[in-house]
Write a structure and sequence with these properties.
about 110 residues; alpha+beta; 3-stranded mixed β-sheet; 4 helices
Length: about 110
């Protein structure tokens, strides 16, 4: 499907590319794992591997940088964001991307299927 069909996914991909010039980037729409309408763009996992993280050792600070880059998405359509942020050296040693947990039903704030 074209990126025009999934504008939030494409926006996330572009903003993370612009902000971090990643050597590896994966934007995974996990909305289908949750109680939202089909083709929703509300729940994401991002894997960002960037040389910029060589100088940012704290995982919390890396997450804050990514959250900042995606602030408009997080204020709007994105309900949940899982982040894996590694330096290239860390990624070279461990490329594990853990599976996300099953949906527990949410808090009822999202549209029904």
């Amino acid at each position: 499907m074209s990126s025009a069909s999934f504008p939030v996914t494409e926006s996330i991909r572009q903003k993370l590319t612009d902000a971090f010039q990643p050597v590896f980037l994966d934007v995974i729409n996990e909305s289908h794992m949750h109680k939202v309408p089909k083709n929703s763009e509300t729940h994401f996992k991002v894997v960002v591997v960037s040389p910029q993280f060589d100088d940012v050792k704290s995982p919390l600070q890396r997450h804050r940088l990514i959250n900042s880059a995606l602030s408009s998405e997080l204020e709007g359509p994105v309900h949940a964001l899982s982040i894996i942020a590694k330096s290239p050296g860390q990624w070279e040693k461990d490329q594990t991307v853990p599976a996300s947990p099953n949906c527990k039903g949410g808090d009822g704030s999202l549209p029904k299927k």
